Structures are given as structure tokens and as C-alpha cells.
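Long-time lurker, first post. I've been practising inverse folding by hand and with some scripts of my own, and I keep getting stuck on stretches where the C-alpha cells seem ambiguous. Below is the full C-alpha cell string for one chain I'm working on. Before anyone asks, I'm not after the true native sequence, just a reasonable design that respects the backbone. If someone could post their per-position residues I'd love to compare against what I wrote down in my notebook.
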């Protein structure tokens, strides 16, 4: 249809993204337009936008944007969604391939014929303050005292390509993370802002998390958030190396290898092909 932009909507455990393919559309992406696209009232409604396939470091890659238009180096659900998009569109025929992101190359493996299950090597985590980043002297930020919105918490911070703060609680809920999330996301200690997961240990093989995403707010699932929660619980000796991370949108399975690689296994669902009026981008 003349004068329209095509986008494809997918979800990973209810964490929904719009895929905008520059090979099929001539558009200039700007933060405020991404934010408008993601709005659930005046826009198409999504937790973020995946812009690709594009060339990153000479390889096939994707740019990942949050609902406020900010760019994230990595998204776990986003990478699984983009892997499905590449297969659905015929860009990729193999079952194992790599997707380049601003956090580096991510190895993905399609686990079924419908391309709805993927296993992803998300790389290694770092708890080092200067890599996350967290202000203050260089140290590992493990079970450290923080004060958010006038209340004291023990928190662990790490990067899995993007920054995460993990706070263990006896009870987690949507209300709790929505109350605390904005204060953690924008705390002075976090120069690049922060993703928050509040986390409850169910047993040595299961965690329960609620998520407040940097740049997107409350979401039903987070792949990198699942990795961050599992690796933190493992580092603190709370769980085994295989952890089911339960969250409102479903369960993501995390495997931590002896050399510290984090494997994430989870589902992806196609939602719709969308035609968007070009005026929407003007
Ligand atoms: N939901 C995503 C995380 C997206 C990026 C995050 N909001 C950030 O800004 O780092 C996931 O599945 O990892």
C-alpha cells in the first residue's frame, strides 16, 4: 500500500516488540518517534522497537530501543524475537547463527520447527562497578547497602551487557516493583540508569521476579533480567546452575556454565504484520 510503513509485532513472554526493517521501509528513526510508536494509547503499543537487520561491525545485527526511545545494548527477549524475524523472513536458513548487537555478537539456536523456542548464549556477567556502571570506588557490587526513596535495601548490581539491580525480597509483586522501580532506574548511583528485578527464591531451582525496565517501565518479562537474577542468586549460593526464572509472562530457563557463560532458553510468539501511515513518522 503506497505511503505506509510495514512493521511486525512479536512478543517474548508478553514483552512485546515492534520490528522495523530498513530493507522494507525508508524511515529515519528518532527517539521521539519510537516513543510515539510504543505508546499504547496514541501509538501501536510495545515495550520497544527492534531496528534491523542492519550492519553492525560488518555483521548482521539489530538496534534495540526502549519505549522511551533510548537505545539499549542488548535485550534477551528482543534477541529471541529478532532471531525469529530473521528466520520468518528468510534472511537466515540455519538453525544456529549469530546476531550482532551493541553488546557484541550473540549466538542463537532455534530449537523447534516453528521457530518459537530459542536457546541463546548471553555471554558472561560482571559485578564490577566500573563495568555496570555504579558510582564510587571500583568494587564488586554484591549485597551492598542502598537507599531508594528513603528506604534501605541490600542490592546486588551487575551487567549482562546492560545494567541490572537485583533486590531479594520475601514477597514480590507488581505494585512493589512499580513503586520502587522509578527510584532505582534513575538513582544517582547509576550514571546510565538501571533495570530493576525484585526477586524471591522459591527453591534452589526456581526464582520468582517482577521487573521494572530502564526506559520501558513495568514489563511482563525480561530476558536479561532473568539472566541477571539467576546469576546473582547463583553467585550468592542460593540456587543451582540451572534456574527456572518465573515472571508474570511465563518462565525463562537459565543455565550457567563452568566458564560463566549464561544460556537463556525461552519462547517467542508472532503477533501481527502492521501497516502504519507514513504520516505517523512525520
Ligand atoms: N526486556 C529486555 C530488556 C530491554 C533493555 C532494557 N530495558 C535496558 O534498557 O537495558 C530483555 O528481555 O532483556
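-- Answer (accepted) --
I ran through it position by position. Result:
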Amino acid at each position: 500500500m503506497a505511503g505506509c510503513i510495514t512493521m511486525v509485532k512479536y512478543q517474548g513472554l508478553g514483552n512485546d516488540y515492534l520490528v522495523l526493517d530498513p530493507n522494507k521501509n525508508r524511515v529515519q528513526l528518532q527517539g521521539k518517534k519510537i516513543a510515539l510508536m510504543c505508546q499504547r494509547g496514541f501509538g501501536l503499543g510495545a515495550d520497544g522497537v527492534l531496528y534491523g537487520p542492519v550492519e553492525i561491525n560488518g555483521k548482521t545485527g539489530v538496534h534495540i530501543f526502549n519505549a522511551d526511545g533510548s537505545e539499549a545494548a542488548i535485550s534477551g527477549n528482543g534477541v529471541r524475537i529478532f532471531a525469529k524475524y530473521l528466520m520468518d523472513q528468510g534472511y537466515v536458513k540455519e538453525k544456529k547463527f549469530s546476531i550482532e548487537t551493541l553488546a557484541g555478537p550473540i549466538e542463537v539456536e532455534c530449537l523447534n520447527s516453528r521457530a518459537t523456542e530459542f536457546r541463546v548464549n548471553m555471554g558472561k556477567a560482571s559485578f564490577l562497578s566500573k563495568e555496570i556502571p555504579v558510582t564510587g570506588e571500583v568494587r564488586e557490587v554484591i549485597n551492598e547497602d542502598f537507599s531508594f526513596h528513603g528506604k534501605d535495601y541490600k542490592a546486588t548490581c551487575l551487567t549482562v551487557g546492560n545494567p541490572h539491580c537485583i533486590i531479594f525480597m520475601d514477597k514480590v509483586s507488581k505494585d512493589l516493583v512499580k513503586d520502587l522501580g522509578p527510584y532505582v532506574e534513575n538513582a544517582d548511583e547509576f550514571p546510565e540508569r538501571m533495570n530493576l528485578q525484585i526477586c524471591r527464591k522459591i527453591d534452589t531451582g526456581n526464582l520468582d521476579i517482577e521487573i521494572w525496565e530502564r526506559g520501558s517501565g513495568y514489563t511482563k518479562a525480561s530476558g536479561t533480567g532473568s539472566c541477571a537474577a539467576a546469576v546473582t542468586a547463583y553467585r550468592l549460593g542460593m540456587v543451582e546452575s540451572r534456574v527456572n526464572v518465573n515472571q508474570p509472562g511465563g518462565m525463562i530457563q537459565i543455565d550457567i556454565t563452568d566458564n560463566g557463560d549464561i544460556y537463556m532458553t525461552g519462547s517467542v510468539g508472532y503477533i501481527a504484520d502492521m501497516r502504519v501511515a507514513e504520516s505517523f513518522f512525520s
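A couple of notes from the structure itself: The two ends are 18 Å apart (CA to CA). The mean pLDDT is 96. Happy to go over any region you disagree with.
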